[in-house]
Design goal:
With 278 residues, the protein is mainly beta. The protein contains 3 helices and 18 strands. 14% of the residues lie in helices and 37% in strands. Helix 1 packs across helix 3. The termini are far apart.
């Protein structure tokens, strides 16, 4: 059987002037052409070659001895060659670039950008790329709670949070309550593993542990107070939505940092505002 989008070993069944025909058996009915410029020197009928199967510009199945950056069901970081009316075309190491349709993009792309993508077969039996890689990532990683990791944000969900591919390979999530303001698909992040679920998925936080994060949060709050000319027009009982909008913090983190500033004598809390003292 000839496998679109995969590497496989096939038998040379018929040399021709413009290449060789390959099949999965010496008398196989299914055949695919390996163009002459890619046929190894000295190749003869009966030889076995490892090739990758994709479709050419005329939508014909074709073999290549080149090494693709991506195979079916796998993920890789690819570079955008150009943007067209139907999507982005990605460089994956073959003559024909790989289409990433607009509907499969989770962020706006431009030529020269890099993106994490998976390879799939669309309804027209063509190979395409998708940035929706959740189902293609591995669930079992070598990481445990407390480890520091690097990852790539590939999708944002208002309900769940920021989906991250750790090492561009393992599935992870920054829960919605922990997602910093302004984070977007395509961002590279450094994070702390806060938990490992039973199925191996990772929970992440960009924030440090609370006792390490308070001082940084406190200084950020002071900067915002200065932007309001020394007086915030609300106190520590303000809604979580306003706290998230103005500071990018959860309400608990905000109250911890405000408490630190009170203890240091740098602010005072009044009925409807927080005022800088020094």
């Amino acid at each position: 059987m000839l496998l679109l989008g995969e590497k496989q070993e096939l038998i040379v069944v018929k040399p021709v002037t413009f290449g060789v025909y390959l099949s999965d058996a010496p008398d196989g009915k299914e055949r695919v052409l390996l163009p002459g410029k890619e046929v190894p020197e000295g190749t003869r009928a009966g030889d076995v070659l490892q090739v990758f199967l994709y479709k050419d510009s005329k939508d014909r199945l074709i073999a290549t001895t080149r090494e693709p950056a991506l195979t079916l069901g796998k993920t890789a970081v690819l570079t955008v060659r150009e943007i067209s009316k139907i999507g982005a075309f990605l460089d994956w190491g073959l003559e024909k670039d790989l289409l990433l349709p607009f509907r499969e993009q989770t962020a706006k792309l431009e030529a020269g950008d890099s993106c994490l993508a998976a390879l799939y077969i669309d309804k027209s039996s063509r190979l395409c790329a998708t940035m929706k890689v959740y189902h293609y990532l591995e669930k079992k990683s070598p990481y445990k709670a407390g480890d520091q990791v690097d990852g790539r944000v590939y999708e944002i969900s208002g309900n769940f949070g920021a989906f991250v591919a750790v090492d561009d390979r393992y599935t992870a999530l920054i829960p919605a309550r922990e997602v910093p303001t302004g984070i977007k698909a395509g961002d590279l992040i450094h994070a702390r593993v806060t938990g490992v679920k039973e199925d191996g998925k990772l929970d992440l936080s960009i924030r440090e542990k609370a006792y390490l994060q308070i001082d940084e949060d406190a200084e950020n709050i002071m900067q915002v107070i200065d932007e309001f000319e020394g007086v915030l027009p609300f106190n520590d009982k303000v809604s979580p939505e306003i706290i998230k909008r103005e500071f990018g913090l959860s309400k608990n983190a905000f109250k911890r940092a405000v408490g630190r500033l009170l203890k240091q004598g740098r602010i005072e809390i009044e009925e409807n505002r927080i005022r800088r003292i020094r």
